[in-house]
Amino acid sequence: MMRYKEEKEAKKEAFRKYLESSGAVDALTKVLVALYEQNDKPASALEFIQQKLSCPSISDYEKLQADYSHLQNKYNDLLAAHHKISKEFEEMKSSNALATASRKETTESESPKDGI
């Protein structure tokens, strides 16, 4: 039983050190102090904390998600158009190369040969 408590305390201590070394404790302390020092307490402490930690609110998050979805659709449309135009361009290059080769063959066959 004593070993279990020691392991639990060691895990708590390791986690506390992790939070301190990552700066999470300082950031949370600053936000909580700012909330404490507010003369007029906000209606939602959670929204205050999110705002101070630069987290988007739920409505901001939903707007960002909608913007992302719109931009992803626009990207997909542009990518499809790019692939279509690239394919058309390659086909035009190919047909142009064939036409050039055909004209070259026609020109060579029509020109008089030396010695005839």
UniProtKB/TrEMBL annotation:
It is found in: Nucleus. The keyword Plastid does not apply. Residues 102-116 have a biased composition (Basic and acidic residues). Residues 92-116 are annotated as: Disordered. It comes from the Eukaryota. Coiled coil: none annotated. Keywords: Nucleus. The keyword Membrane does not apply. PANTHER family: ASSOCIATE OF C-MYC AMY-1, C-MYC-BINDING PROTEIN. Belongs to the AMY1 family. This is c-Myc-binding protein homolog. It comes from Stylosanthes scabra.
